[in-house]
Design goal:
two-stranded antiparallel ribbon; single chain; 19% strand; 8 helices; alpha/beta; 223 residues
Amino acid sequence: MSIAIIGGTGPQGKGLALRFARAGIDVVLGSRDGEKAAKDASQMSELLPAGSASISGMGNIEATQAAEEMVIFAVPFSAHEASLLSLKPHLAGKILIDIVVPLAQGNPKAVDMPSEGSATEAAQALLGEDIPVVGALHNVSAVTLNDLEHEINCDVLVCGNQLAAKKKVMALIDVLGVRTYNAGLADSARCIEAITPILIRLNISKDVPFSHAGIGVLPPQHD
């Protein structure tokens, strides 16, 4: 199995690539600069233990075409619409996993949601219903993802309008050793994406004795 990560040379994309490759899934990094993606992929491959799957790099369109079915979308929100428009002709038959959070410009402690309500909904509206969009991995710290010495410290909320696509994405993310939860339709992304700036606020607060926190869905405690 192979997946593509568009925006894969950014911190979150790199962390996901390392973890998926370590879990046995081939990863293709996509970037506007294909040469940079190939160079980064080569350097990242040196960090993987023996027996890991491969990490390669190429341009965004080529990476999308190389993905077997699932394409993780990890670009900055400022490039969200333009990047999707360029990739739309190449996403037929694939699932887009949108992990983008529309943080307010100059203020990562707030969101600036698009008119559709969330980045996930904006992607679905732009691509049309024939290309499933699944929102996921919005609340995972990039620092946590790149710290391969430790497990991911949070659960993952997954949303989207097509159940079959959500189940496939949840199965993919499960290989990272985290719990995934079906959080509903795409409009649930309005809440899920908005959690990220709250976590950022907490993680940089002097009143909180830790950083890079995540969220968890916890069962009740019984005696």
